[in-house]
Amino acid sequence: xxxxxxxxxxxxxxxxxxxxxxxxxxxxxxxxxxxxxxxxxxxxxxxxxxxxxxxxxxxxxxxxxxxxxxxxxxxxxxxxxxxxxxxxxxxxxxxxxxxxxxxxxxxxxxxxxxxxxxxxxxxxxxxxxxxxxxxxxxxxxxxxxxxxxxxxxxxxxxxxxxxxxxxxxxxxxxxxxxxxxxxxxxxxxxxxxxxxxxxxxxxxxxxxxxxxxxxxxxxxxxxxxxxxxxxxxxxxxxxxxxxxxxxxxxxxxxxxxxxxxxxxxxxxxxxxxxxxxxxxxxxxxxxxxxxxxxxxxxxxxxxxxxxxxxxxxxxxxxxxxxxxxxxxxxxxxxxxxxxxxxxxxxxxxxxxxxxxxxxxxxxxx
Amino acid sequence: xxxxxxxxxxxxxxxxxxxxxxxxxxxxxxxxxxxxxxxxxxxxxxxxxxxxxxxxxxxxxxxxxxxxxxxxxxxxxxxxxxxxxxxxxxxxxxxxxxxxxxxxxxxxxxxxxxxxxxxxxxxxxxxxxxxxxxxxxxxxxxxxxxxxxxxxxxxxxxxxxxxxxxxxxxxxxxxxxxxxxxxxxxxxxxxxxxxxxxxxxxxxxxxxxxxxxxxxxxxxxxxxxxxxxxxxxxxxxxxx
Lengths: 365, 240
Known about the structure:
The structure holds two protein chains of two kinds. Chain A is about 30% helix and about 25% strand.
């Protein structure tokens, strides 16, 4: 596994997603194929997927997906995990040997439950405990990276083109009610396994096309709250910002979108709805350090839904379509047509206008 | 007429096929192939499916009809010819186009007509039948952009910040524009009879392409937007 400084490739990206509002489960094959027409948006230095509802048999346990550089690191990490969790299941993540994906690290997954005694002594709720443990492993255990840590969801990523990464991880064998995908074309940071998207924490996952110019300002602010940016990619900070705004601060998705893609002051000034205007002034003032500037189109995955959002200037493309119970989102319409040739109501959301889709309550596990 | 099945063809192979001697082509099963007909002259293409980004970039007097939507950067730096879209168009349509026509039946995304320019008899024309996104005509330096707002319902005819940095050319919006904020460096006025005469020339072709009645189109009021001097940004950063 090559790290920051060992590889440096100067270089867009592609994103894609599908969700069933009825909670119907789909195999990962469709989302993998959706990346094919967008092949040229990536350069083979990263591809990845997040699937929700894929582990119904382990739905009550946190699924930790991990990269290790060696067997010794894995053993050390397992010893560390056993001090904090009951490990329900521990297994290698099944992969296929294919010529287009090489130099893979050791890829493992654990289904775990936090030990009640540890939670009590640390006086933390479960999610906070898991989040802190992820940060601890990623910063302190050299050669070990947790790249997925939610319940009944999982991230699969690698260095390679996304359509190959889907084949590598045998995604056709998983079934989920929502999927997101990413093809990477790194511009400022290395193409390495940990740097591929999605970036996740708990059940939040982010795929991102763009380049955020506020990265360091955002990072400095968010690191005050215990988050540690370790993966050398701007997208990581977006994931932590979303976790902070949604889980810790309890904002709604709409409000969180108004923080990171806040309207211009001139646009806020002309709002006719005074309550709405006050709220936007409050959010921009309160969380000014979490405004994300520079081009981005992102898809946030979470338990039971997706949110797609563009930067307020809309410097990246985003298309949304639908058919029956499914909503499709992608950088290009061609990707949507690959998933559903007869998709209807094709639309282009405006900059800063979140598209929020939630699965009907009770229809997913 | 040559028929090309574009299923699983990459853009390079597709363009190589189009460069053969034949003039008329129909492309079926198009799905995201970029750069279709880049720089081509003397061709007549009909596309079924979704052409990829930069369709007709540097187009040099070819005619392209898309029977559906098109993606981003259609007609980038196009020089001459005509692109007809029977659907909507993505962002940055007609980026820096310097000649030819782009006619769109439905809506346009952000930044349509960004940096369009003109030179002598080279006057590019873009007509959008529905609504346009924000930053319409950003940095427009020449040419003509027309937005009709047909079937727009409650949707505004343009998004925010139209004509930002506009310093040449002309824009026509089929709307009284009372609720639209323009930058201080442009002038808006109701279309005069002379303007309507000019419009008629462009719109009659558009109406026949998309089967609209020109009388209906001209029955609503138009607003004309032009930069308010030859050098509206003289003092913006430094004197220039």
